[in-house]
Design a protein that fits this description.
With about 475 residues, the chain is of the alpha/beta class. The protein has two domains: about 1-255 and about 270-290 and about 380-470, Amidase signature (AS) domain (Amidase signature (AS) enzymes); about 295-375, no CATH class. It is about 40% helix and about 10% strand. It contains 16 helices and eleven strands. Helix 5 (about 145-155) runs parallel beside helix 6 (about 170-175) and helix 10 packs across helix 12. About 55% of the residues are buried. Bound molecules: glutamine. The site of glutamine has 13 residues, from loops. Glutamine (GLN) binds near residues 119 and 197.
Length: about 475
């Protein structure tokens, strides 16, 4: 990472870097609204100064690098709202494992970023604290649910931010904001301290401008954790040789049948141009058959709400945040949840509770889990013919604020290209691969075999060495 290297070389000091990041936030966040909470300036500068005074030998790989966290990850003493009124006033007494590792590597966490309430959504309009705006066009959404983290990186407020991806919430906002976003293999990054949405799908992943920086961030936050039993036992280290290996000798699987209906023509043209770029650099290509994404969409919108309905049962006015007073205990539960949760979260809780209830469990939840197994096998078959699968990340570029918020189904359709990845536990990366005539970022998604995070990063890095889409900046944000 260029900034980390400059810090290490002493050409810029951590306090200067933190000052510059805070100035950039002060100048732009009034328009963008990427942050829900910024830590106190004096406290941040003191943290930077402590680093400055420490011997260089003690500096970690991200020493002095400003970072931001989606506001569904716990950081000791800072608010953690999940974009919801129900967590108003809650300050976790501990750090998420990914947060602890980021800080141990020397990153300076400036604050918490906006999100769709409890990470449910694709536009960041479901936040109880108002939407985030896309730095490329303030009339458009940044994508979601990690829209604040994506916008903070796109607007050059921070070089690195973390998001969480349950069905696309790192990749889709990365796509709409023109930055790199990685959803690691399931189990690669500990979920300890990430407020659970759908535990069998959730993964924390990094945003950065370059794939190289995203890879560095992953190497810091990845690895086994005794506090999360679903975390993979193996360490994940950044293998420089693998990252730089280029695409020669790799086969790209292209699911041709998924590139028709609903795909924006400019997205499609950019996708084919990217294929040319990669095959021109020595990659082979093979057509692969993948199941129609409507199956993933249907399975996801049963499994995710089912898990959410159970995970969100803990927000009852007793243990965390908001409490609406009432005459009796049941009344307090009901009125707290009624005023604390927004419409999308309530919709998910109702769908999930219904799908899990006696008499419907077999017809919905169990069926969805069976479809999930078929989706995993479908990918296993595709990966017999290729090393990575390539797809667009999102069917369209950023849409206008307000355009889809009243139509949940059209909002859910944004995730057609991202959901299956989470159901199958695969790693997948989104990188910018062009711009629409209106100047909005377009995107390429690279999917790998379970555990092959290094391979998707390798392809993404090779793509960025061949192109310069990732260097373009939104006007006024450079
Ligand atoms: N947009 C999807 C949803 O609303 C995915 C969200 C996510 O990945 N957190 O559930």
């Amino acid at each position: 990472m260029e900034l980390a290297a400059r810090l290490r070389a002493g050409s810029v000091r951590p306090t200067e870097v933190v000052e510059a990041a805070l100035d950039s936030i002060a100048a732009r966040d009034g328009d963008v609204h990427a942050f829900l909470h910024l830590r106190d300036r004096t406290e941040l500068l003191a943290e930077a100064r402590r680093l400055e005074d420490a011997p260089r030998s003690e500096w970690g790989p991200l020493a002095g690098v400003p970072a931001a966290l989606k506001d569904n990850m716990c950081m000791e003493g800072s608010p953690c709202t999940c974009g919801s009124r129900i967590l108003e006033g809650y300050r976790p007494p501990y750090n998420a494992t990914a947060v602890r590792k980021l800080r141990a590597a020397g990153a300076i966490i400036l604050g918490k970023t906006n999100l769709d309430e409890f990470a449910m959504g694709s536009s960041t309009e479901n936040s109880a604290y108002g939407p985030t705006r896309n730095p490329w066009d303030l009339g458009r959404v940044p994508g979601g649910s990690s829209g604040g983290s994506a916008a903070a990186v796109a607007a050059d407020m921070v070089p690195i931010a973390l998001g969480s991806d349950t069905g696309g919430s790192v990749r889709q906002p990365a796509a709409l904001c023109g930055v790199a976003g990685l959803k690691p293999s399931y189990g690669r990054v500990s979920r300890y301290g990430l407020v659970a949405f759908a535990s069998s799908l959730d993964q924390i992943g990094p945003f950065a401008r370059s794939v190289e920086d995203a890879a560095l961030a992953l190497s810091v936050i990845a690895g086994p954790d005794p506090l999360d039993s679903t975390c993979s036992p193996g360490e994940w280290r950044l293998d420089r040789a693998e990252l730089d290996a280029g695409v020669r000798g790799l086969t790209l699987g292209v699911p041709e049948s998924l590139l028709g209906e609903g795909l924006d023509p400019e997205m499609k043209a950019a996708f084919h141009a990217s294929l040319e770029t990669l095959t021109g650099a020595g990659a082979a290509r093979a057509t692969v058959e993948l199941m129609d994404p409507s199956y993933a969409l249907s399975a996801y919108y049963i499994v995710a709400p089912a898990e959410a309905s159970s995970n969100l049962a803990r927000f009852d006015g007793v243990r965390y945040g908001l409490r609406e007073p009432s005459a009796d205990l049941l009344g307090m539960y009901l009125s707290t949840r009624r005023s604390g949760f927004g419409p999308e979260v309530r919709r998910r809780i109702m769908i999930g509770t219904y799908a899990l209830s006696a008499g419907y469990y077999d017809a919905y939840y169990l069926k969805a889990q069976q479809v999930r197994t078929l989706i995993r096998r479908d990918f296993e078959r595709a990966f017999e013919q290729c090393d990575v699968v390539v797809l667009p990340t999102s069917p369209t570029p950023a849409f206008a604020l307000g355009e889809k918020i009243t139509d949940p189904l059209s909002m859910y359709l944004n995730d057609v290209y991202t959901l299956a990845v989470n159901l199958a536990g695969l790693p997948a990366l989104s990188v910018p691969n062009g711009f629409s005539r209106a100047g909005l970022p377009l995107s390429l998604q690279i999917l790998g075999k379970p555990g092959a995070d290094g391979e998707v990063l390798r392809v993404g890095h090779a793509f960025q060495k061949l192109t310069d889409h990732h260097r373009r900046r939104p006007e006024g944000m450079a």
